[in-house]
Specification:
There is one protein chain. The protein has about 290 residues and is an alpha/beta fold. The chain has eleven helices and 13 strands. It is about 35% helix and about 25% strand. A five-stranded mixed barrel has the order 8-11-9-10-12. A hairpin with a 2-residue loop joins strand 2 and strand 3. Helix 1 runs parallel beside helix 11. The structure holds uridine 5'-triphosphate (UTP). The site of uridine 5'-triphosphate has 20 residues, from helix 5.
Length: about 290
């Protein structure tokens, strides 16, 4: 059973400067909730309980958010505003939060390796919180976890992007083994224009088997001088099996201004204004109860 979810959140968020100069990108609110809280909700919905966060300098707000604020609780206790804290209180009660610092930002692969002491020798999920994923039915991580239970290997979430966008992503190619599922044969990080092996781009959701840590350790810095998870995953794909899953749902790139605005508009119209359509805590609790049983 996958219980642990890693949130690499040590990056500088340079595309969103100056907002991210002193505020973690993951704490930027989409309507009234920080980005990382959407990711944690998705992980809980998939039955995960251990949230492991890779932080860096200036990221204290992340830790404070998933902790009790007694002064605030006391201040609003018994008022109409108390209900605004219901969701976050429930998250704090449902999941545990542990943190580790990445002291040098050497890339996503390095951030994942930094999380190893929190993960141990278990398969685990990875959420890049600036990719906000929504689905009316099962969340993306829950879809991926179901596939993991069937295939027992690393899985990356992919979506089709226009050819003009492939240079921003890791791009895979492979053999389709069933609807929306591919066995990865090749993987290129941010391919030059016209050289992408397909239009299937990796987004910020992964399930990784723990042998990935050794493979990252053996990985030299790649594109941009960073240790790329894509390079380690390609080694895993060559020696074993990595799947790419075209998920059901929508993903917003909240690391870019345009994606962030789109996510805000979507969440305002479909979640904030229709709270009954988005009561994740109830369904999450059911998933957890079912798994425990
Ligand atoms: P990004 O490249 O999208 O994030 O990394 P960034 O560096 O924060 O943003 P820009 O490109 O400068 O605007 C993908 C994810 O990996 C994490 C980031 O926090 C983000 O969630 N990351 C990246 C780390 O934790 N450590 C790193 O060294 C690099």
């Amino acid at each position: 059973m996958i219980k642990k979810c890693l949130f690499p959140a040590a990056g500088y968020g340079t595309r969103f400067l100056p907002a991210t100069k002193s505020m973690p990108k993951e704490m930027m609110p989409v309507v009234n909730k920080p980005l990382i809280e959407y990711g944690v909700e998705e992980a809980i919905q998939a039955g995960m309980t251990d949230m492991c966060v890779v932080t860096g300098r200036g990221k204290h707000a992340l830790m404070d958010h998933f902790d009790k604020n007694y002064e605030l609780e006391h201040q609003i206790s018994g008022t109409s505003k108390e209900s605004l804290l219901t969701d976050i209180r429930s998250l704090i009660d449902t999941a545990s939060f542990t943190y580790i610092r990445q002291s040098e930002m050497k890339g996503l692969g390095h951030a994942i390796l930094t999380g190893r002491p929190l993960i141990g020798d278990n398969p685990f999920a990875v959420v890049l919180a600036d990719d906000l994923c929504v689905n009316t039915d099962r969340g993306v991580l829950a879809q991926m976890k179901a596939l993991y239970n069937q295939f027992r290997c690393s899985i990356v979430a992919v979506q089709e992007v226009p050819e003009s966008e492939t240079h921003k992503y890791g791009v895979i190619s492979g053999e389709m083994i069933k609807d929306d599922l591919f066995r990865v044969e090749d993987m290129v990080e941010k391919p030059e224009a016209g050289t992408a092996p397909s239009n299937l781009a990796i987004i910020g959701r992964y399930i990784l088997t723990p042998d990935i840590f050794e493979l990252i350790e053996q990985t030299e810095p790649g594109k941009g001088g960073e240790i790329q998870i894509t390079d380690a995953l390609l080694k895993q794909a060559k020696s074993g099996c990595v799947l790419a899953y075209k998920f059901k749902g929508q993903r917003f790139d909240c690391g870019s201004v345009e994606g962030y605005i789109e996510a805000t508009n979507y969440c305002y119209a479909n979640i904030y204004k229709q709270p009954s359509a988005a009561t994740p805590q109830k369904t999450e609790q059911k998933v957890l109860e079912a798994e425990v049983a």
